[in-house]
Design brief:
CATH architecture of the largest domain: 3-Layer(aba) Sandwich
Radius of gyration: 21 Å
Shape: globular
CATH class of the largest domain: Alpha Beta
Helix content: 40-55%
Bound molecules: uracil
Order of helices and strands: HHHHEHEHHEHHEHEEHHHHEEHEEEHEE
Number of strands: 13
Strand order of the largest sheet: 3-2-1-4-5-13
Number of domains: 3
Strand content: 15-25%
Length: about 425
């Protein structure tokens, strides 16, 4: 293909035809499109955008650039994706809950990057957990246990891998059609019939306001409709962290408490909202009592244990969910009500402690993190701990303290920010 003409067409605001877009994506995946030309096209898209049809074709071509999982005759295949947040451990609770209720969760998950965490890092705080599974083992576990969560393999939507790395390096990440195509290419390749997307909105998220979140949601639903998938969206708040822990092992502990019927109310509420939407999309019973019951009667926890054991994880191991040995607290400087707790600052603090990555491939300390004694709207007393920093021998502690210095504000009165802004059910969901 004539790459300069293709790039110029987008630069000048033209609409691509399907064949050109598909040829471009094939070239990205096989390396015949050089980085500089791919990057120039990405920048043209940042300024000119892609219409829904172009975005759907781009996404489908990206999904086609590698292997597509054939989930075949597995019952009620479902998938979930979060656009990334702080303290977001919903998959750890949602996946076994859905499997308990008759869905098949065969899911590829990511690792954390920047201030956001990733499910695979969290799971690796359980000794023995195997995130790398070949396709046969992945499908066998999906069939036998109803839930399998593996790391994203290099063969899944490889064109996205190339484009994402270029976007990261060329300031072209923040483009709604490119984000929508990137997320959905991996969901299409993952093969599930019904998908629930948790689009995070707020300081700690990619989408900083509700309008941006709605726009991304609309684009991803349009891609799903084009590909014949049922896509529901929950737009959820990410002004403050989700739950009361941020950090890998800490978050798994909190997820387990939620699977035992406890845990923080916001985590439970979000899990249940996501579960109801994707179960309804999949044609399974989704009334609130049915969906909540397995968290309270031990069934979801039992499914969690079967899942973790099937992937080699040993929850009884001495090192399981081990926390860093050192703690310091940040205390309230007055009586009042917690009025602000900045998710982005907490995410940055945890990364500074070693709990996240500055660059892909960095090692992660799974035991460090931050525990929140109060959430926005809670009363606090002068001198009582607000935040507990779990650190290892002071590593990153000064930077974490600096990140947290302005993260917290106490006032005379405050109410919690909304957790769930909007729910967009899948078309045709019961
Ligand atoms: N997550 C993705 O997978 N891709 C993006 O472009 C942004 C967030």
């Amino acid at each position: 293909m004539n790459l300069p003409a293709f790039i110029a067409a987008k630069r000048d605001g033209a609409t691509h035809d399907d064949a050109d877009l598909r040829a471009f994506v094939r070239g990205v995946a096989d390396g015949s499109v050089p980085d500089e030309q791919a990057a120039a096209w990405l920048m043209a898209v940042v300024f000119r955008g892609l219409n829904d049809h172009e975005t759907a074709v781009l996404t489908d071509a990206m999904a086609d650039s590698g292997a597509r999982l054939a989930l075949g005759d597995l019952p009620h295949t479902v998938d979930k994706h979060s656009t990334g947040g702080v303290g977001d451990k919903t998959t750890l609770v949602l996946a076994p809950l859905l499997a308990t209720l008759g869905a098949t969760v065969a899911k590829a998950s990511g690792r954390g990057l920047g201030h956001t965490g990733g499910t695979i890092d969290k799971l690796e705080s359980i000794p023995g957990y195997r995130a790398a599974l070949d396709e046969a083992a992945f499908l066998a576990q999906a069939r036998e246990v109803g839930v399998v969560v593996a790391g994203q393999s290099a063969s899944m939507a490889p064109a996205d891998g190339v484009l994402y790395a270029l976007r990261d390096a060329t300031a072209t990440v923040a483009s709604p059609p490119l984000i929508a195509a990137s997320v959905m290419s991996k969901k299409l390749a993952g093969g599930a019939a019904s998908i629930v997307l948790d689009v995070k909105v707020g300081r700690g998220a990619f989408m900083k306001d509700l309008d941006a979140g709605r726009d991304l949601a609309r684009r991803m639903r349009a891609i799903g409709a084009h590909a014949g998938r049922r896509v529901a969206v929950v737009l959820s708040g990410m002004e403050q962290p989700l739950g009361r822990t941020v950090g890998n092992a800490l978050e798994v502990r909190e997820a387990i408490a939620t699977l035992e019927g406890g845990g923080p109310p916001d985590l439970r509420e979000l899990v249940l909202a996501l579960a109801r939407e994707v179960l309804a999309a999949s044609g399974l019973p989704a009334d609130p009592a049915t969906v909540a019951a397995p968290l309270d009667d031990g069934r979801a926890k039992a499914t969690f244990e079967r899942w973790i054991a099937a992937q080699g994880g040993d929850l009884a191991h001495d090192d399981a969910l081990a926390l860093a040995p050192d703690v310091v607290t940040i205390d309230a400087d007055r009586d009042g009500v917690l009025a602000d707790l900045d998710a982005l600052a907490v995410g940055r603090a945890v990364r500074a402690l070693g709990g996240g990555r500055a660059a892909k491939g960095d090692a992660v300390d799974l035991g460090v993190g931050v525990t929140l004694a109060a959430k926005v709207g809670d009363p606090v007393a002068a001198g009582a701990p607000l935040l507990t920093i779990h650190h290892r021998g002071g590593r990153g502690l000064d930077a974490a303290r600096a990140a947290l210095a302005d993260a917290v504000r106490i006032d005379d009165a405050a109410s919690p920010p909304p957790l769930i802004h909007e729910v967009l059910p899948a078309d045709g969901a019961s």
